[in-house]
Specification:
two-stranded antiparallel ribbon; alpha+beta; 7 strands; five-stranded mixed beta barrel; OB fold (Dihydrolipoamide Acetyltransferase, E2P); 154 residues; Primosome_PriB/ssb; Single-stranded DNA-binding protein
Length: 154
Amino acid sequence: MNEAHITVTGWVAAEPRYAVTTNGTPFLSLRVGCTPRRYDRQTGQWQDVETLFLTVNCWRNLADNVNASEFKRGTPILVTGRLRIRQYERDGQWRFSAEIEATTLGPDLFRGTVDFRPVQRGGPLSDEDRQLARDTADEWALATPVDQEEPKAA
């Protein structure tokens, strides 16, 4: 297994999008931002470096659990998974997108606490549930770019 695995500490940059594929597989996609900080010895202060944004894709049980956990924009998280670099063309230019196919995702407990609840699975999804998931996926595809700057501390 010669795949690049990566762990990212960051924050939820945009509200997660949950859907169920036409064959019934749960899927959740979210944007994660991470802003590295460097200590500037000349000024004696910490400086933020340019923010990196990644798309995180979750499948099956992980998608269901992340969706049920109700992660909101600004939530500090840890993500581990397989790194994927995707090339695509837009407006006649080749671009690259960094994505993580997540194997684990959870809150960053350095910056908060959590009340863990084991999952209890219910019955199969109804047609109404699947339609709602498809509608949500369509909204993600049609959405305009969102303001993905790091949320300001309260």
